[in-house]
Prior knowledge:
alpha+beta; globular; four-stranded mixed beta sheet
Amino acid sequence: MPATPAGRTTRDARTGTAADDLVPCRVVVCRDCCCGSPKVTGVDHAAQTAHLRAQVPVRVSACLDVCEHANVIVVQPSAEGRAAGARPVWLGLVNDPDATEDIVAWVRAGGPGVAPWPDILDLYAITPPRRRNAP
Length: 135
C-alpha cells in the first residue's frame, strides 16, 4: 500500500479505503500476429478493443503466445482480488460481442477473486503458456 513519509497508509478520504484497494481489474488484449488481425475473420477487432476501453481499464499487448486461441483477453485481478489469492484469468476465442460483454460484466462486478466466476466464461477459459509448459 502507498505510504506517507511517516509510514502511514494513504486512504481515500470519502470511503476510508486503502489506496491500493481502489485499483480495479485490468484487461490485457492481445493484438499482434493473430489476435486482432484479419486471420480471425468476422470480428471487428477495433470495435471490440474500443468497447472494452470504454468500460474497463485496457492494455493492448503484443503476442501472448497462444495464437491458436485468438482473440485472447487476460483479466488481471484488482488489488482486492490479489489479496484474496486470485491470479490472472486467460480467455481465448473471444470472437463475438456477447463473449466480450460477458467479460466486461464480470470485470465491472470485480473480476477474479472478487466477483463470482460466470459459468459462461468456462467456454473461453484457457491455460496460459507458462503453466501449460511447466514441468
